[in-house]
Each structure stands twice: as structure tokens, then as C-alpha cells.
Amino acid sequence: MLLATLCLALPAAVGGPAPEHPNVLIVMCDQLNPRFLGCDEHSRLATPNIERLAGAGVRFSAAYSNAPVCTPARVATFYGAYPTELGVLANDFPLVTERRHLAEYLADAGYATYLCGKSHIEPLSRGVGAFQTSFPLSAGVVTAGSHDSKYGVYLERLLERQPELFPDGPPQRFDRSFYGVDYLATPEQLYGTSNIPAPLYPSVRITAEAIRCVDEAVDAGRPFFLLASYFVPHHPYFPPRPYDARYDPAAVELPPNFTAAATPASLNAPDYTEAQWRSLIAHYSGLVALLDEQVGALVDHLEQRRILDDTLVVFMADHGDMMGEFGALFKGRLEDASARIPLILRFGAATPAGSVVERPVEQVDVFATCLAAAGIELPAGTRGRNLLGEARHGKEFAFCASQSRGGRLAMLVRDERSKLVLEGTRFRDEDLHARLFDLRDDPWELHDLADDVDRSATRERLDTVLRSWWAEQRDLEPPEVTELVERERSSEFAAEVAPGPEAERLRAQRLTGVLAVDLEDLARRQAARLQRVESARAAGAADWAADEGDRSFLRDEVQRMSGPWREQLARAAAEAPQPQAKLVHACLGVLEQWVRLGEPADVLQQVLACPALQATLSAVRDREGLRAFLDLVAARAAATPGSSPQTTAALLEGWERVFAAD
User: Fold this and answer.
1) What is the pTM of this model?
2) Homologous superfamily of 4-138+190-382 in CATH?
3) Nearest 10 degrees: Cα torsion 262, 420, 455, 433
4) Are strands 311-317 and 343-346 parallel, antiparallel or unpaired?
5) Between 652 and 200, where is the model more confident?
6) Tell me, what's the pLDDT at 483?
7) Each residue of 476-511: b (16+ CB within 10 Å) or e?
8) Are 98 and 81 in contact (CB under 8 A)?
9) What are the residue boundaries of the structural domains of the chain, listed by start?
10) Please, which residues have CB within 8 angstroms of residue 250's CB and are 6 or more apart in sequence?
11) Residues 57 and 346: beta-carbon distance below 8 Å
12) DSSP string, 174-203
């Protein structure tokens, strides 16, 4: 067992009253179907370490993601509100909110805050940047340009220095073009064996870094908030040896609803043979086995340091994975395989050992629970409830919504027994199609009871609750997001937007609508962060490694640039104060994308007039390097097919304002 073998378990501290500022550890995994845990009622797998955690705490068997895709689920967890009111309808939507990250509240209360692993909250300042110290890794396989990870660059450099560490050759690498191939039709693109040695596999490195963070905080005598965020078992399913062979495909049992008709039909439903399905599930299971060992290593280390009972441990996922149910894969659907999540809490006497809560709970409750455990008053507008307090026996309802950029909508409400799903579009409520399931008698969702006259009262009750919840969410949705969906409605419903320039244009357009808000927000948050660091130094407190965190963040960001911009930006950023350096890159990197895509001149003028951008660019001391960089962007704009003279003129006018005071 990797890492866990290094952590010799010692007796935990004697139980007593909860500390005033307990540690908080959230173990977040990505795309974990709860049926692949040994403690689940319908388990398909043994996971001894996670089972041990559940046996010492409380497991919520009806916990739901508030959105069954990565980014919306994570903002709900860490910002304590439903994704719609945060403006995050799907992946790649940046936050549109004045709310603060869970890590920031805990930092204000004196906690050392650490991120080890995946963030996947955009912009990065609201995800990675919310933590004092971060070790951002995302992919379960090495990924180039994916979210917030540069682990592939690290492995390539390690290969150059110590090739003996890679007996199977250069570490395999998937860049973003991987997601442009038809990997559902080519199983070899979707599952197999990673040639990255297990000790260097990202999940194992995340665990090692998380243990280092624990030791740093404990040795400094500070309470900590640690987010250990694993990419596994997200696709592509490539466990390293020996986990790739942990499960025999021939022994894999397909789920009871495997041959059932998928609803809606054909959504991520590949035409695989049963043998291919069994092999895929075996590789997914290998990733779960690897994850289970990492959880065991973390918990064992807390016990070794005698802080386990003084730590709130949260084990959860952002969403599930269909993993063969209804012949489908991945996420985004509202069947329980995708929408239900594992959720386990362990916190000494506050979580009765081995207890199971069957009433529904949801991701927003994690935010409220962590703040309450730390003795922090919940901010106004918090949607979740404290699962260690008033909601310790669950809640009456849980909600989940899966949305698209063009207005497709599927949403569910779950009570203690039943689940109602409404599917259609956000534009015509009367066209929403209903599905109803009795999950107590039909956990595999084989029997739709929506038209059963004996269940009409249940359907009407849940329908009223769900529509009321959705109406409230629509009222709270940021207007710029509502307008965006309306703009994209025609293109999506006329035909799916294929990968290419049009899809990239729409993505840039989404980012355009919130840039000014984000820049102002980032400038304010960075100023507050530096003030906290300076206050700590003045008081003689330990350095929080914030400076190194800033430098690491900047180095990772600068590496994202390509072509002639990289060198110029690196030179300009290196001469700037650290917070401004981040902002320079954040502004210009996105701006260059808009220019390349030929965005309208009035949009560029609005962006360039943003006070935070103007102030930041003016703070860069290397004026020659900055001007050279900006001139390159303007030249690229002029050379872009379809770019208007007005676009170039807007850029040049903005540059002149930057240098007017020189």
C-alpha cells in the first residue's frame, strides 16, 4: 500500500470536548459512483479504508450533488449556495458572485489553508487563489493545459534528470486534444494502464503533499483547513500498475439496470461489447482502489499525529459516474449513479460511530457544516444546513440541476423515499417531462411511476416543491448569465455546437461578460490577502508561505502562454509586484484570446477601461517589455481574419491610456 505503509498508526488522543478551532480535512474525489464503495447499500466493490472511516463516523446514504458536473458542484460545496445563483450553470462558467470561498472564512479565523490537487473553479483566483498555500494538480493522468495542473511538465523534467524512474518509457501524456476525439467509439482512448510509476502517479503525490501540509500546520501549532482533491476516478480510466490488474474483468458484474433503455437515449451511451464494458469497469475499480489507499494514508497520518479526533474529516465527491448503468458513462445525468454522491463525516463524539442517515442532504450542506464546526457564524444567504447540528438527521429535500449553455434543463428533488425528475428546457415549463421513482423499493430506477395513479399525490407534492425551488433560483440568477443563455439558445437548439472556432467564440463570450467584475474582485482579494500576511509578520507569526504560493501560481500561469507572448509576459510579470503580476497575466491572457477570436471593438473598449486593469498595467515597472507584449497582441489582432480596424483601434487606444502617464 503506497504511503499508508509509511504511517504507523498510534493510539488517538483521548476523547473529550471538541476543540475551539478543530482542523478540517475535506477529501474530494472526482466522478465517484457511490455504489463503488464497500459501505454503500448496493456496493459493487470493497474499499476497506473508506469503510473504516464510515464505521467510525456517519454516512449519508442519500447525499446529492447540486449539479452533476465538476465546476457547478464544486462552487456549491465551497461557496455555500446553489450553482444557478452563483452564475455557474455548467463547466467553464466563471463565478459571478460577491460570496467568499470556505477557505477564506477559515483563514480569517486563523486557519492555515491548503489546497492539494484539483480546484476546477474559474477563475483561478476564486479556486486556487482562495487558499494561502496550494499544490495544484488536476489530472489522474498527466494532462497538458488542463484546468490548473502542470504536473506533466514536472514529470518531463524529472524524466530528463532521472530516466531510471520510468522503466516503461516516457510518461504518457494526454493533452486537451484527447477530449476532441471520439473516445466513446475507441475504448483504447478511454481505459488502459498508465505507464507512470505508482509512486509518481498524481493521486499519490497529492497524498504526500497533503501529509506535508498537515505536518507543517501541526508543527506550527495552527489549526488547518486542507482540501485533498483527487482527480480519480474521473475518466480516462488509466490506473498505474498494479492497480490496473487489481480486478479481473471476467469477474466484474454488470449492474442490474445495464440493459435498461437509457433516458434520455444515447447520452454518453457507447456501443461497447460486454467484454469491453467489464474491462472498463475493472479499470475504473482499480482507480477506486488507489483512491481508497490514499484515504487510508491520510487518516492514518492524522492518527499518528494524535489529531484525528480533533479533526472534522469529510469524504465526498463532486458527482458520480454512470459506469454502465443504463448502458451509459460519465456524468451530467440525474440517475443516482451520476447525481448521488458519497458523503461521510468523522468528528469524534459528534459523529456516532457507524451511523447512517437515510434522509436526503446535499453539497451546500458541507459549507455550513465546516463553518459551524470551526465556530464561525454562517454568512447571510447560506443555503446549506449544519449536518452536525440541526440537520444531523438529514433534511426534508435535496435538489440537483443539470443545465446547458443553451437552456437545456434537467432537475430533481429527492425526499426520504422518492425522487422526481423534470427534464426539458428552461424556456417552457409546461414542456418539462416528469419521471418518478420509489428509491426505497427500486434503487436501480427501473420503474418510472410518473403515470401511476396511486403515486399522483407524491408526484404533485414533489412537483410543487421542485418548481418552487427552481423559480427561486431563476430569480437569484445573475442577469448577465440569464442574458447569455438567451443569446446561446438559438445556436444550441438549432444544432449542437461542434468543437471549433464557434465553440471557442462562445466560450470567450461567456468569459467576456464577467471580466470587469472578476478583475475588481481579484484586485480587492489580493490586497486583503497581502494585508493578512503583513499583519502576521508584524505580529511575529510564522510565514504562511504565501510568497512562495504566489510565485508558484505565477510560474504555472506564465507557462500557459504560448508562442511569442510567453517570453515578453514573463519578463513583464517578473518585474511587477506579485499580486499585480497575477492580474497582468489573467487580464492579458484572456484578452489575447478575445482578440484572436475577433471579439467586437466595443467589448474590448469596455475591458480596457476597467480601472483594475488600468491600475495593474500601470504598476508594471518594465515598461519596454510590457509595451512589446501589448504591441504583439495588437499586431495579432490586425492579422486575425475577420478582425475589423475598429478592433485594432480599440486595442491601440487602450495601450495608449496605459502609457499616458509615463
Assistant:
1) 0.74
2) Alkaline Phosphatase, subunit A (3.40.720.10)
3) -60
4) antiparallel
5) 200
6) 76
7) ebbeebeebbeebbebbeeeebeeeeeeebbbbbbb
8) no
9) 4-138+190-382, 408-494, 504-659
10) 278
11) yes
12) EEGGGGGS-TTT-HHHHB--B-S-GGGSHH
- Partner residues linked to 420 by β-bridges: 413, 436
The single-letter code of the amino acid at 594 is W
Torsion of CA 257, 258, 259, 265, to 10 degrees: 90
Would you call 599 exposed, middle or buried from its count of C-beta atoms within 10 A (0-12, 13-18, 19+)? buried
Set of cell numbers at residue 136: 495544484
Mean pLDDT of 218-226: 96
Give the residue from 157, 123, 118, 158 showing the smallest Cα distance to 137.
Answer: 118
For 250, other C-beta atoms within 10 Å of its C-beta total 9
Structure-block grid coordinates of residue 255: 449492474
Task: Write the pLDDT tens digit of every residue in 468-484.
Answer: 999 999 999 988 788 77
* 3-state helix, strand and coil shares in percent for the chain, rounded to the nearest 5: 45, 10, 40
Q: Cα separation of 612 and 548, whole Å?
A: 24
Q: How does pLDDT run across 310-368, given as a tens digit for each residue?
A: 999 999 999 999 999 998 999 999 999 999 999 999 999 999 999 999 999 999 999 99
CATH 3.30.1120.10 fits 408-494, yes or no: yes
Q: What are phi and psi of 256, to 5 degrees?
A: -60, -25
Separation CA 408–CA 640 (nearest Å): 33
